[in-house]
Specification:
The protein is an alpha/beta fold and 490 residues long. The chain has helices spanning 21-36, 56-70, 80-85, 101-108, 126-135, 155-166, 184-194, 225-250, 259-272, 281-284, 303-306, 408-411, 419-429, 438-458, 473-480, and strands at residues 11-16, 45-50, 88-92, 114-119, 143-148, 174-177, 208-216, 285-291, 293-295, 298-300, 317-322, 334-339, 346-353, 372-378, 382-390, 399-407, 463-466. α8 crosses α9 (259-272) and α8 (225-250) crosses α14 (438-458). The structure holds 6-O-phosphono-beta-D-glucopyranose.
């Protein structure tokens, strides 16, 4: 039995925002899959809540549709879905007024089990909902609260959100999700680094030339213009997902997998990031915005055409050169980039090692490439270690670069669980290792805020790129100026 299938104790999960996109696309399917994997103990209950008026039956119908839409047909087998729906109920409640919270309290009853309150709602409602949870006495000592980004849009607003939640729940009971931390390959990064003796001696400025982190998406706005146009790629992807990946690559070896041991090390990385501000932002950052182009084989609109307003300086692409001021990483650039409507959907981390100091091979042997370790987070999860070998056969010593290739899909024929499956079960187990601590979120904003301020101060506007490409040419220039290139052989 793996930790993926060890049953957890019975629990009650109350989802606020139960008729929203996150609940339908991610939470209900994730809970269903965990039941299917045999991880639930009885009586586990799922209570949906939102402002809309639904009867239990109506909500179960909605939940059924959501699961049928987001779970593979073959995984909805005989009776499993009905067993799942039998544990689902619904209470209409309004966090701003408190309407329905008495009913919610009655629905939870005198449950001795762990309760998780999932706030799948806009962050502006976090404070109101936790206040009502407190005021109406819904929480017990074993209750916990789950929230998700955006946690603020600056250090100041993140503090407000954290203070509002912190008034009711102490830090050990707050689970801040960054769903990238629940991804299988992201956790594999820790296994790769800390369960193998091979890499650690090389994992520093003496041997690593630079690191690249790319999170490229082929999708555009996906109907989220209201949120996205106020956020932009820096806040939407870099402040959280990409900085978390950077922390996992760069952190020191924690003394254990204990939540605070890991989070203490990540925090040290965040605090060691060299500032990007008005003095250097133009040199080390690139902002882009896509114009009309092609994606997934069809023509797509530009960003401005997708917005109803039609005018915006919001970046849909960002590339940055970050540096960490500590002994391990001094002088090793971390090139980060993310964007919407890029050439393909791919997330990967590339560790490029230094070139050999001296070649004993003649020119006829061909170019000797530096070793690269490529950790592919999605899709086609896997790890490739690129090495040089002799080209097989006669004809003298010609060299060739090949990957030692480990594809997870080919090596393991197991379903790759969605990040939310792992994360929700970790909440029930009370394991905070894969959740962001308050100081981490705030330290990340502390680094991001001066970048935003510099863009405003220096009037650094977005550069246009064609949808379906790798972003503005300035992004290529950013890395090529340093004599390096983005890794693009996907
Ligand atoms: C979310 C962002 O956090 O992550 C979205 O708000 C983005 O804009 C998404 O599309 C990407 O997640 P994934 O798991 O599809 O890589």
């Amino acid at each position: 039995m793996t930790s993926q299938t060890i049953p957890v104790e019975p629990f009650d999960i109350v989802v606020f925002g139960a008729t929203g996109d996150l609940c339908e696309r991610k939470l209900l399917p994730a809970l269903y899959q965990r039941q299917r994997a045999g991880q639930f103990s009885e009586p586990t209950r799922i209570i949906g809540s939102s402002r809309s008026e639904f009867s239990n039956e109506q909500y179960r119908a909605l939940a059924k549709e959501a699961i049928q839409a987001h779970v593979a047909e073959a995984e909805i087998e005989g009776g499993e879905l009905e067993r799942f729906l039998a544990r689902v109920s619904y209470v209409s409640a309004d966090g701003t007024t408190g309407r329905g919270f008495e009913e919610l309290k009655a629905a939870i009853g005198e449950s001795p089990h762990v309760q998780a309150f999932y706030l799948a709602v806009a962050p502006t409602l976090f404070g109101d909902i936790v206040d009502k949870i407190d005021k109406f006495g819904l929480a017990s000592p074993s209750s916990r609260v789950i929230v998700e980004k955006p946690i603020g849009r600056s250090l100041e607003t993140a503090r407000e959100v954290n203070n509002a939640i912190g008034r009711v729940f102490d830090e050990t009971r707050i689970f801040r999700i960054d769903h990238y931390l629940g991804k299988e390959t992201v956790q594999n990064l820790m296994a790769l680094r800390f369960a193998n003796a091979l890499y650690e001696p090389l994992w520093n400025s003496a041997h690593v030339d630079h690191v690249q982190i790319t999170v490229a998406e082929s999708v555009g706005l996906e109907g989220r213009a209201d949120y996205y146009d106020k956020a932009g790629a820096l806040r939407d992807m870099v402040q959280n997902h990409i900085m978390q990946l950077l922390c996992l690559v760069a952190m020191e070896v924690p003394s254990s997998l204990d939540a605070d041991a890991v989070r203490d090390e990540k925090l040290k990385v965040l605090r060691a990031l060299k500032p990007i501000n008005a003095l250097n932002a133009e040199r080390v950052t690139v902002r882009g915005q896509y114009r009309a182009g092609a994606s997934n084989g069809g023509a797509v609109k530009g960003y401005l055409e997708e917005l109803s307003g039609g005018v915006s300086d919001t970046e849909t692409f960002v590339a940055l050169k970050a540096e960490i001021g500590n002994w391990r990483w001094s002088g090793v650039p971390f090139y980060l980039r993310t964007g919407k409507r890029m050439a393909t959907r791919v997330s990967e981390i590339v560790i490029e090692f230094k070139p050999i100091p001296h070649s004993i091979f003649g020119e006829a042997a061909g170019r000797i490439f530096a070793n690269q370790l490529v950790i592919r987070l999605q899709p086609n999860e896997g790890v490739k270690q690129w090495i040089m070998i002799k080209d097989p056969g006669p004809g003298g010593m010609r060299l060739r670069q090949i990957p030692l290739d480990m594809s997870f899909a080919e090596s393991f024929h197991e379903r790759n669980p969605d990040a939310y499956e792992r994360l929700i079960m970790d909440v029930i187990r009370g394991n905070q290792t894969l959740f962001m601590r308050r100081d981490e979120v705030e330290a990340a904003w502390q680094w991001i805020d001066p970048i935003v301020a510099a863009w405003e101060e220096r009037g650094q506007t977005v550069q246009s790129y064609t949808a379906g490409t790798w972003g503005p040419s300035a992004s290529i220039a950013l890395i090529e100026r340093d004599g390096r290139t983005w890794h693009e052989s996907f």
